[in-house]
Amino acid sequence: RRVSSVLNRDVKQFGKQHLFDGSEETCWNSDQGTAQWVTLDFPRPVKVSQLHIQFQGGFSSRLCTLEGCRTGEELVKISELYPQDSHAMQISFPRMMVEETVLEKLKITFGSSTDFFGRVVIYHLGVLGERL
């Protein structure tokens, strides 16, 4: 896992580990700037079918671009998602990902933050699919 930035470089309080810790009390909070992102490397090939994401309302993204690739290949655009500016859990079914897209790396770029300073806050990120 890698992220574009962490608010005030405070990885203990706002680091990437909070994307997947299952706690409703913790979150990844990016620093300011446009085009924040999260990159996930899988230990073996996967076929992704769903993306679960929970933003903090007011700190979400209007556009999420999904890119993926196999090890040693260049990232290619898979899909675009248009999340709501809400604190509710959002579940997306990227159409192209369901159609046999096998990857070992997934990059989610948050291109248009609803926050004036470009910050993104995510309480939960889940990637569902099948290991191959």
From TrEMBL:
Keyword tags: Nucleus
Any one annotated GO CC term: nucleus
Domain F5/8 type C intervals: 1-54
Subcellular location: Nucleus
UniProt entry tagged with the keyword tRNA-binding: no
UniProt similarity note: Belongs to the NR2C2AP family.
Protein name (database record): Nuclear receptor 2C2-associated protein
Organism: Polioptila caerulea
